[in-house]
Write a structure and sequence with these properties.
It is a single chain. The two termini are 73 Å apart. The strands form 2 sheets. Strands 3-2-1-5-4 form a 5-stranded antiparallel β-sheet. A 5-stranded mixed β-sheet has the order 6-7-8-10-9, with helices on one face. It is 65% helix and 9% strand. The chain has 18 helices and 10 strands. It folds into 4 domains: 280 residues, no CATH class; 56 residues, no CATH class; 59 residues; 118 residues, 2-Layer Sandwich (Heat Shock Protein 90). The relative contact order is 0.04.
Length: 683
């Protein structure tokens, strides 16, 4: 048990911060929920400025998002102060926001009904908490430490300025609106001699915000890799602030002063939630690489929105001048023009933003789209898509594998089949087309740092990848057919060879034995039986003819001289031909099925020439070049041979194609026939 005690102590040490952070986060949620309920009650009591229901989501988000994110960061990285800053900041902000409706009920709706109304009014005056935790995060983001030791005085200055402003507000004679007429319950007051400290503190806080932005800028310029992406998330949230200012100005131009104060409050609350969410994504590194895509889409849709607004205003202005103000036709026309302009404007805005801010994505998509167009026009092969992806992603190591249907196997562009890649340290990204997996892309780890580029390039190339996959699949199926046909041919060849041996060693030998026996019987006849001699001689001659017939049949199945090579078999064929046959053949030994196919091709070609062309001479060449046997059979006969003419060329063609070879026939009338055959010699 003694050895186990430290483990329990360490577990308790790790659990305590998480429990405390969760309790603080839950307290913040409970306080803001109570504040919203109190505001709703105040609205029912007709308290002025209460009941802004549209602000409720902003109020809840400004507290719940930093509270939840802070608790999550503490649970994962208890030593990172950013989590504690968020949790404590959310609780303090919830207290300030909930104090306002509490003071309304305690002081205005039913005075004296709730205790501490003036203290709630004092708490509601502590507006600097809006900026406290974002300022603290700016100094220590993303690792919980200052950019360097030189920043300690600046951080102390910011903390001191914020503290001084809070103290000045607490010790002020007047509370902040809307409770300016409520006496400050805190009895201490700032001496008149130091009354200048309040504007000084306010200016110091403003200066601290500028210093905090400078700290973020310095860290961003120094950052690399993961830290740079983390800083981009914070920068993105900060980018929303000027956009919010523009939105606020548009609000005032459109609606005047009505609701302007609430719009400012909603904007500030939204920024609190956005910054907290960005900090959470950056610190926990959840979908960290999506920042490029998020910034890209924000810029695109901002440009599109502004452009559509200008188009609508221009059409309305021109239409109003032409048809008069207030015309429904002008409004309808403006809406139609805007609807028609959405697609083209988005495409152009996307291209412009990519060209300016995401050049790798712009160049990669342009390369892929040009390739797809070339494939569509037949200028390039779809199988080149792997090389195009590697160039578009700027990753020479990228390798594309095509998914084979009804199996777990993949194939490369040349048809080499591999199983699912294992043991490769490179990351693998699944490629899909219309919801179905069509391949895998193996690439370097640097590509993962640009997920928007990877997704966009694969989406643009998905059709070309699917076409290439189908072509590779067809090629593999044809290869299987070729292998199967080769097996059939080889089996037929082996069967012929077995039949030839059976004829030679079986029936032929028996007939030879029978002929010898008859000849011996003929020679051993007594004188009185010599009359039988001619009959026995005739029988021996018939046996000899039968043996010749069997030899001819056996030679048609497979000539025995093929055991000595193609050249020897062709030489025997030439000697047995009724016309002159000149043979020039290689002495190189080839696979048995190739030699047999070549022999029968030449045999059939010579037979056809003698039978149909009446040649005086036939020339045969058999040479090996580039891994294939090349046969040429030329005669000086009548020509005019065609496969459809009943010349036996159909069978010759079938025999060549069975070996995966090619055949070319040239047979002009009156000029002889030339047959060229090429048979692969592969094993």
């Amino acid at each position: 048990m003694a050895k186990g005690a430290p483990l329990h102590e360490n577990h308790g040490v790790r659990t305590a911060p998480r429990l405390i952070a969760c309790c603080l986060a839950l307290a913040a949620l409970a306080v803001i929920a109570g504040g919203l309920l109190l505001d709703w009650i105040a609205a029912e009591q007709h308290v002025p400025d209460s009941g802004s229901v549209w602000l409720y989501p902003f109020l809840a988000a400004a507290v719940s998002v930093p509270a939840a994110v802070g608790a999550l960061i503490v649970a994962r990285q208890a030593r990172n102060p950013i989590g504690w800053i968020l949790v404590v900041g959310a609780l303090s902000l919830a207290a300030v926001l909930a104090a306002t409706p509490y003071a309304w009920l305690a002081l205005d709706a039913h005075p004296g009904s709730l205790p501490g109304g003036s203290w709630a009014a004092l708490v509601s005056s502590l507006w600097p908490v809006f900026f406290a935790w974002p300022l603290a995060v700016a100094f220590v983001f993303p690792d919980g430490r200052l950019p360097s030791r030189r920043w300690r005085p600046y951080a102390l200055f910011a903390a001191g300025s914020m503290t001084l402003l809070v103290v000045a507000l607490v010790l002020s004679d007047e509370l902040e609106p809307p409770f300016s007429d409520v006496p400050n319950p805190f009895t201490l007051r700032l001496p008149e001699a130091v009354g200048f400290l309040r504007p000084v503190a306010w200016l110091s806080v403003f200066a601290s915000l500028i210093v905090g932005a400078a700290a973020v800028r310095v860290r961003f310029r120094r950052s690399k890799g993961i830290e740079r992406l983390q800083m981009l998330w914070l920068a993105y949230a900060a980018l929303l602030i000027p956009l919010g200012v523009v939105w606020f100005l548009v609000w005032r131009l459109a609606f005047g002063e009505a609701g302007a104060d609430n719009a400012v409050v909603g904007f500030l609350l939204g920024m609190e939630a956005a910054v907290a969410l960005a900090v959470g994504v950056a610190v926990t590194r959840y979908r960290l690489y999506d920042i490029d895509r998020l910034i890209n889409r924000t810029l695109v849709y901002s440009v599109v929105t502004v452009s559509l607004g200008l188009v609508y205003a221009l059409v309305s202005l021109v239409g109003g001048v032409a048809a008069g103000r207030g015309s429904m036709w002008v409004t309808a026309l403006a809406v139609l023009v805007v609807a028609a302009a959405v697609g083209p404007l988005r495409s152009r805005a996307q291209a412009a933003v990519d060209w300016r801010f995401a050049r790798p994505r712009y160049d990669g998509l342009r390369r892929v789209r040009a390739f797809v167009e070339d494939v569509r026009e037949g200028r390039r092969e779809p199988e080149d898509v792997g090389a195009v992806l590697a160039a578009a992603l700027r990753d020479p190591s990228a390798e594309l594998l095509f998914r084979l249907p009804a199996s777990d196997a993949y194939a490369d562009r040349v048809g080499t089949v591999v199983m699912a890649p294992v043991g490769d340290e490179r990351p693998v990204t699944k490629v899909e087309h219309r919801g179905q997996e069509i391949g895998l892309l193996r690439h370097g780890r640097a590509v993962l740092e640009r997920p928007d580029l990877l997704r966009s390039v694969l989406a643009a190339a998905s059709l070309a990848i699917e076409i290439a996959r189908l072509r590779v699949e067809v090629r593999l199926q044809l290869a299987e057919v070729e292998v199967s046909r080769a097996r059939v041919v080889r089996a037929g060849y082996e069967e012929r060879r077995r039949l030839e041996r059976d004829l030679h060693d079986g029936a032929q030998q028996r007939l030879v034995t029978l002929g010898i026996a008859l000849r011996r019987l003929q020679r051993s006849l007594p004188r009185e039986a010599q009359i039988l001699g001619p009959a026995l001689g005739s029988a021996v001659d018939e046996v000899g003819l039968a043996i010749e017939d069997l030899r001819t049949i056996a030679a048609g199945v497979r000539p025995p001289r093929l055991d000595e090579g193609l050249a020897a078999a062709l030489a025997d064929l030439a000697r047995a031909s009724p016309v002159q046959v000149d043979v020039e053949a290689t002495d190189e030994r080839l696979p048995e099925e190739v030699e047999a196919a070549a022999y029968f091709v030449v045999c059939e070609a010579v037979t056809n020439a003698v039978k149909h062309g009446s040649p005086s001479q036939v020339r045969v060449e058999a040479m090996v070049a580039n891994g294939a046997l090349r046969l040429v059979v030329v005669d000086d006969g009548d020509g005019g041979a065609t496969p459809a003419g009943g010349t036996g060329l159909v069978g010759l063609t079938d025999r060549v194609e069975a070996q995966g070879g090619t055949l070319l026939i040239q047979s002009p009338v009156g000029a002889g026939t030339r047959i060229e055959v090429e048979i692969p010699c592969g094993s």
